[in-house]
Amino acid sequence: MILSACLHYGPQGRALKEADRLGPGDIAYFDYVHEKVTLQLGKPRDWGLYQVHTLYLPMSIKTGVKQEGYNLFYYLPKGQGPFPAVVILPITRGDYYTQNFAIYLAERGYACLRFESTKNFTDDSHKTLESAEQILKHYVIDVRRGIDWLIAQKEVDPHRLGIMGISLGALVASVVMEVDPRIKAGAFLLGGADLAGILDTSEENSLIKFRQRVINHEGLDPQKFRDTATRVLRTVDPLGYAAQLDSSRILMINGYFDQVIRREYATSFWEASGRPELVFIPTGHYSAGLLLAYARAKTVAHFQKSLH
Question: Is the Cβ–Cβ distance between 64 and 125 less than 8 Å?
Fold first, then answer.
């Protein structure tokens, strides 16, 4: 009964994109020195159909927050590869859902590189839009460094690489796919575009606190905050690079009643990226977890279609 209330938009070809009016994004902004990334694999844990290794990826640059690197988890299916692989990016706080997706994918023959949640936006020292822009920029770069490591593994097929993310992870994953041609398919859950609008209207507690810290620190009124956020965050906004995407290789799942990333920001990305497949589920942001099983099955079906 719940699923019967879903709104489904299949791929519909390219529309006039917001990105076209913004001007083309310069993907060179996310360039970095490609060096061999050597990560020490932790002792694997055996879970029957797959093994899980723990890794640590140092950040590419100091960003002013407490974090110095990323905890990673490498899920390796048993059997003979090479396997298709999926990079998985988490929500702002918590790893239950991305861990669940990684297990589901690994059991079905996908190698997965899962990033652990960093909690950056809950760091009280994080008080400026410029720091948010730098955190997001280098998050994208560091995910690409993780991809460098992933495709160097002999058991991974570098030509069948996907990415998925949830909430904040979906925002970052969409930029990674936009600027890195190695990514052949993307699944973006509870994501969108127009970062200034998302920050200005979100009812997520950590983003409300960040918004207020910026307003207090910079002495901004609400309209000035929106205008400043639009200018500062433009370089890391998925809208600016959406013209790079192939809409046939994208899946979007969003909550119709989402008050964290509102429906208008999901449709902004949908329009800008060429109207890919989009499903609006009849939930909010947090209650979307009630349809986890549906989202998992839909995501795996998308990767099976796009990476095989």
Answer: yes
* Structure tokens belonging to residue 61: 């640059």
Q: Are 138 and 131 in contact (CB under 8 A)?
A: no
Q: Find out whether 288 and 279 touch, Cβ atoms under 8 Å.
A: no
Answer whether the bond into residue 82 is a cis peptide, omega within 30°. Answer: yes
Closest by CA to 238, choosing from 175, 179, 189, is: 175
| Cβ contacts of 301 within 8 Å, gap of 6 or more | none
Per-residue pLDDT of 27-65, as tens digits, reads 999 999 888 888 877 789 999 999 999 999 998 876 666
Q: How far apart, in whole angstroms, are the C-alpha atoms of residue 30 and residue 182? A: 14
Tell whether the torsion through CA atoms of 149, 153, 156 and 157 is positive or negative.
positive
pTM (two decimals): 0.92
193 secondary structure, DSSP code: S
Q: How many residues does the chain have?
A: 308
Write down the H helix ranges in 107-190.
129-151, 168-179
| 30 Cα distance to chain centroid | 15
**How many angstroms separate the CA atoms of 273 and 14, rounded?**
8
Q: Which of 19, 231, 265 is nearest to 129 (CA)?
A: 231
